[in-house]
Input
Amino acid sequence: MMHRKIAKAAVFAALVLTVGTLGACGSGGNSGSDGGGGSSVSGGSSGTDGGGSSGGSATGTVRWPDGTPAAGASVYFYDYEPQISLDTGGWSNGKYWVPKLSSDGSYSLGGCPCNDLTAYIYLPGQPGGDPNNGGQDCWIIAGDGSGNYTGDPASPGDVINWQALDMPCDSSWYASDQSAVASTASLLAQQSVGYAGTWQAAETRASGGGSGG
Output
């Protein structure tokens, strides 16, 4: 009987320690708008590519193709590395969602190191709107300071500034490999499959200027 009581006490102590550890490391958030989920985080500190001192997060800015901060837009970061495929560190199913960028377009991204980071500007469609001008979701992939959009490594303290590619909105997410992006850009340039309006119109919507033009 004494041995059984000691065993139960040991199990209970282990459970308490595990719950406490998970509570300290976990992070909650709202689901993203692309149907797959994603923890919600706010904007963060800005900087320039090549390093930083932001502690446990990767930071930077997100801009439109003309260099204007993507204020008011959402951003999805993707990284399907095994260590963040679970709901940990602000990530959910390989996605990290910033629901609304601040006026300077800055973000703060926890949960890294990330080995294959990709960023997309995202704006939800407006119900009843023109399908080619705000009525559909808008997805635009972004590149880093070197123009790379196929996946960046990122560690805590790194600064990565992103700029959306000069291409129209697609109504749905698309893969980040070079051939997929080139094919998507070609179709959108013809206002073909997936076309959901210009990035200029999306920028106007994100900044609170209406449906765009």
